[in-house]
Amino acid sequence: MTTTHQSQQSPYIKVKRSRIHGTGVFAKKDIPKGTKIIEYVGEKITKAESSRRSDAQIESAKKTNDGAVYIFELNKRYDIDGNVPWNTAKYINHSCNPNCEVEIIRGHIWIISTRDIKKGEELSYNYGFDLEDYEDHPCRCGAENCVGYIAAEDQWPKLKRKLARKKSRKK
Ligand SMILES: [Zn+2]
Question: pTM for the complete prediction?
Answer without folding.
Answer: 0.86
